[in-house]
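Key result, reporting period 2: structure in, sequence out.
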């Protein structure tokens, strides 16, 4: 999906035959979502559309790259499929007419909101565009003070059920593809840290099947308790066949340990690596990911920790 494609769809839509809806969502610890959709007048709809377009114009020349759990590359927009986001369906389901709360959130409900979504229904042929953004909440300020405004010479306190909407965008969704403007936005809106844990477990199951790591249970526990490592293991799972190929060439694993002088012992007639403590986690994950290399021309030795 190109940013210019999204801009064209928004600019060329017929306001008389397309709708704009705003949703505020509370994503529960259980993963269940509750969304509220208060009415917004035509002027506010136009203002929000204008803010979205202003932001998208800034990214018309920005290159794109596939999403990586490990991190993002400055100056790039990441792309990802909604099918790869485990909680996407739950979020989207909460926006459906049958379950959405057609009212404004109130009191404690406001403080629990996580993000908002602007849905632009283009037309029957082109479907909808979803814009996601984490919410700016004023709960900290209102707990320690108050917010007010000047009206006709007076200064009045505003209700403390406040949220802020700015022109920034975290995610754009169209045709089951996500444009990730802000890398952390995907993790915050869809809470995919749980997904990282699940994907890391799948990678670890492949590693366990190889039977190449002594003290595997301790290794697995330490991996799952380290957020950086769960991201690396998730990325490894996206690199099809990487784990299997590494352990099929175990003599090369041993060779890499020797060349790079890794603090990893090999036992049982050079058939197993011994995991001892957390200080080895990064080296073990680099071995599993096949990150060690020697260049063809200069025979430089190095470690590839690329995204």
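The corresponding designed sequence is given below.
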């Amino acid at each position: 999906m190109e940013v210019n494609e999204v801009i064209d769809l928004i600019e060329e839509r017929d306001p008389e035959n397309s709708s704009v809806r705003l949703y505020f969502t509370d994503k529960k610890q259980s993963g269940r979502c509750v969304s509220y959709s208060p009415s917004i007048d035509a002027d506010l709809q136009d203002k929000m559309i204008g803010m979205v377009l202003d932001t998208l114009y800034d990214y018309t020349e920005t290159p794109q790259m596939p999403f990586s759990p490990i991190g993002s590359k400055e100056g790039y927009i990441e792309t990802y499929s909604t099918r790869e986001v485990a909680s996407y369906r739950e979020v989207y389901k909460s926006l459906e007419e049958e379950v959405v709360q057609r009212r404004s959130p109130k009191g404690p409900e406001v403080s629990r909101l996580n993000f908002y979504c602007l849905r632009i229904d283009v037309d029957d042929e082109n479907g909808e565009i979803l814009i996601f953004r984490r919410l700016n909440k004023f709960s900290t300020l209102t707990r320690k003070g108050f917010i007010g405004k000047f009206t006709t010479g007076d200064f009045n306190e505003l209700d403390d059920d406040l949220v802020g909407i700015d022109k920034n965008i975290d995610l754009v969704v169209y045709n089951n593809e996500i444009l990730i403007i802000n890398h952390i936005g995907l993790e915050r809106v869809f809470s995919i840290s749980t997904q990282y844990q699940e994907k890391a477990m799948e990678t670890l199951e492949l590693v366990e099947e190889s039977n190449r790591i002594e003290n595997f249970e301790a290794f697995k526990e330490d991996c799952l308790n380290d957020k950086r490592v769960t991201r690396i293991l998730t990325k490894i799972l996206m690199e099809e066949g990487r784990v299997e190929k590494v352990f099929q060439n175990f003599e090369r694993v041993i060779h890499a340990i020797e060349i790079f002088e890794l603090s990893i012992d090999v036992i049982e007639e050079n058939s197993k690596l011994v995991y001892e403590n957390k200080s080895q986690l990064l080296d073990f994950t680099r071995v599993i990911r096949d990150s060690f290399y020697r260049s063809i021309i200069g025979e430089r030795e190095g470690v590839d920790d690329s995204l």
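The chain has twelve helices and 17 strands. The CA atoms of residues 15 and 168 lie 23 Å apart. This case is discussed further under Risks and Mitigation.
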